[in-house]
Design a protein that fits this description.
Length: about 190
Amino acid sequence: IITDTQLVVLIGVLLLIDITFLTSWQIIDPPDIRIYNMSTIPKGENDIILPQIWVCHSGHNLYWLIGLYSGKAILLLAGLFLAWETRKIRYAALNDSQYMAMAVYNVVILSGIGVLTVSILTNNINAAYAIMSSLLILGSTVILCLVFIPKFIEFKRNDDPIHGDLRRPSSNLAVTQAASATNKAPSSNI
């Protein structure tokens, strides 16, 4: 079982790896701005519009991106493995593991589509932006729905297998007092 402290340390280590990677990229091969002029659009008799695309690029940009994408792919594959291994758990305290697995599958699929989109549509910046924005909104919405809608449904059913229905106090005071006295009574069968 992983404690909260171990989980915070694990997230801190992953964050430190990202900070180290991005800092070394900035120091070793700092990116600069490249301006690409697109075809001109005439506007009126004497005016033209010159669309430009500004792109951050470094000397070994491909290698840095391969390293960054590889690290994130390893994390996604680890999450995919854990989601696959816990997909059939029927333990009441972990009843949302199937929904978490579906959320991880969602992230893997949408991340793959996003990386391919950015790689293919480098010159069509508007289409790439629209597709990436749509993927981010869709992914976030699906993850939130997968995580929270089952909890709301369970809450509406009053069916908490671990704690019982703690939302509403019992209308019968004697039953409530007897239940609390039973829980506090010392055991005489020791």
